[in-house]
Amino acid sequence: MSVFESLNDASTKAVDKSELYLKKTHDFYKLKIFEQLTKSVSMLFKVLAIGGVFLIGIFFMAISLSLYIGKLLDSYTAGFVIVGIIFTLVSLILFASRNFINTFVIQKISKSFFKDEKSI
After folding, report:
1. CA atoms within 13 A on the CB side of 33
2. Cβ distance 85 to 61 under 8 Å?
3. What is the Cα–Cα distance from 2 to 72, expressed in whole angstroms?
């Protein structure tokens, strides 16, 4: 084996290892971006779901259903309290199921995210 063949062999190995390193780095950053994206989307979804239900609860507690129930019970205060309790319970149920919401969002996004990789 001559010096040139040895040098050629060494440089070929270096190029192969560099290409492998670049591919692994690319895959790592792709996964990292996916992780950040899904965390952000799931956080946004949780905030909108829990916050939206809570705000709707306050709105209904303050205005519409409380007036109707209050009329039925001859006590507007009781109407306000009953509607507030209902929407508070819904908010607590959504909060307790936040891990399910995370899993659901990650599964939905991962299907579309990794589907693109199969076509490459």
Report:
1. 8
2. no
3. 100
- Evaluate whether 90 touches 52 at the Cβ level (below 8 Å): no
Contact 101, 46 (CB under 8 A): yes
Return d(Cα 39, Cα 47) in angstroms, integer.
Answer: 12
Q: Which amino acid, one-letter code, is at 69? A: I
Question: Nearest 5 degrees, angle CA 85-CA 90-CA 91?
Answer: 95
Tens-digit pLDDT profile for residues 69-105 = 999 999 989 988 898 898 889 889 999 999 998 898 8
Question: pLDDT by residue (tens digit) across 41-69?
Answer: 888 899 899 999 988 877 866 788 889 99
Nearest-10 Cα torsion for 89, 91, 94, 98: -130
